[in-house]
Task: structure prediction
Amino acid sequence: MAGADFTLDGKSLNELGREGDTNDSMEKVFNDIVTQGYYLNNQKLVEQYVRSAPFLLKDLMDWGLEIKLSDQRMIFTSGTHIMDVLLKKARSAGVDLMQDVMLLDLVTGDGAVVGALGLDVHTGEFIEFSAKAIVIATGGWHKAFWPNTGMRDLSGEGIAMAHRAGAAVGNMEFITFCCNIMLEPPMWRGSLAPYMLSLICGGNLSNKNGDNVLAGYDPFIVKTGTGTEWNKSFISHATMKEVRAGRGFANGGVHYSRGDAPWDYMKMVASFIFPGWKYKAMDLSEWGRMLEENLPIEVGPAVEYFEGGIIVDERFQTGVEGLFAAGECALGAFGSNRVFSAITEMLVQGRDAGEHAASHALKRPGQAPALKVPGTLRERAELPLNRKDGVAPAPLRRRVQETAHERLGPIRNREELESFIAFLEDVKSKDLPNMCVALKDRIYNKEWIDALEMGNMVHLLETSARSALARTESRGVHFREDHPCTDNDHWLKESVVEFSGGSFQVGARPVTITSMSPPSGAVPYLDMMKRMMEAHSDTGGKH
Amino acid sequence: MGKTIHVKVFKYNPAIDREPGFQNYLVPFEKGMSAMDALDYIYQNLDGSVAYYDHAGCSLGICARCTGKINGKAGLLCQTAVEGDVTLEPVNASKVVRDLVMRRGETRE
Result:
């Protein structure tokens, strides 16, 4: 939310009045997104991203977007500013907006979506939504992990409810952990500040023995994997290697310090991105002092972005009639590893999904369909309120989050994934059916909210863990210790998880290819990472 | 046992309670903890009924939804450091939905 980039090709950026790069092209960006995704991308959606991005940025600028900084392919502003611009536009277009409302489940009839059941968090009253078409745009499911970098309401309810309604999900095993996230002190835990500063200024990462975490890696990988947004996958991988080998610190991270980076330069950069060492309301002046004196702070990978999601076609329609999905909750353009901006993805997909959903709704004549919300939906939601005793949701939530961070991180293996799935099965059979809240009142009942979100979080963790177990190779942000090669002969396919009769069916489908043919052969993970980095076009910048 | 602090939290449900009150909790102290960290500890370990704006907050000083009074001074719960015993209240008790949560659009004094 604090910092936000929007990426597009440099030529279009130049035509929009920023410097950009006139030698860049949409074809080069297409090449770069596909290779950064290790060829697991849906190339039709990559084309949509590349083609639509300049129009979206022009729209945003016309609506009042102010740009703080830009480089060859990116403009930088704040997430809250983008949100303000969009809200203003939405209000002027007459869109009804509701806040502090959560959706509990979709309602379908004759195979099509006809509405949803929601809950006003403040009053605790149910809300029925009747609709001819619905666009799911609920983002990621950061809340299933602790620590994380997202908003506290990102529980993945949209993906889970679409899955329950019959839509398939895909590539759920690919989860980007942002590197260099603050793990201490508690007040700053989850902040991206060191990630941003290190991306621009460099710095030093050291383990418990005082050794450089990135020593011993291929110099080209280190250069690209620290100076561009490849840093998320590379540094997170390297950090977890240290932590898993027992060379990490108390909070599961490593130490970041200024190292050889010149203090004057760092101070100047900080004055742009954290003016007065203030990152919104976060006062980082103490960290500034520590950087000047070259004192370390503990940082590590934390969940930041989900490459997988609800499977959609080029119209952003899911497998359920009338149900669309866009942005991070959808299986989008980035394959197994995202370097380009997710904000661009959210905007270009959101616009097209909205248009397609609107034209779908127009084709369904008359009023919105009569909604028959099954009584069982309400009853199920009220169970934690009505039980006299049982499992408290808050400690359960934290236990699930911490176990997910430990078992479904950037480095996985069969044994740990199987034990994690067994843990989730246990939670599903013993804890979820017995959740009970202390306070029986419906008004802003935090425990009840947690109880309602828990099922979705556990559901998505299971789809992810089962996909990660099935994918016996290493690719992008998914590294398997027991299968350390990228296997282009057997695994150039998307994982697909369907849900019916209360159980998961894990399968796969071919990757959607338009113009870039994937490579063949099995290649060690870091060698493949290097090849994908080397395949980058000649355009500079962080993407 | 390490250092602990007393955290006094405003408790009020206008639909039921005749008047507001306070509840005291003993919380382990951690250097660099915020008022929100103290509330998270209470919520997860001591009292699941405590309400503070958290379900859609950022906890990083960006969204400004977790406003409150910390030892009488208005600020963000997530970015106000706690260094000892502390009292946590809503910025305006007459606009409370429950405990520290205020009505939508009325998170200021």
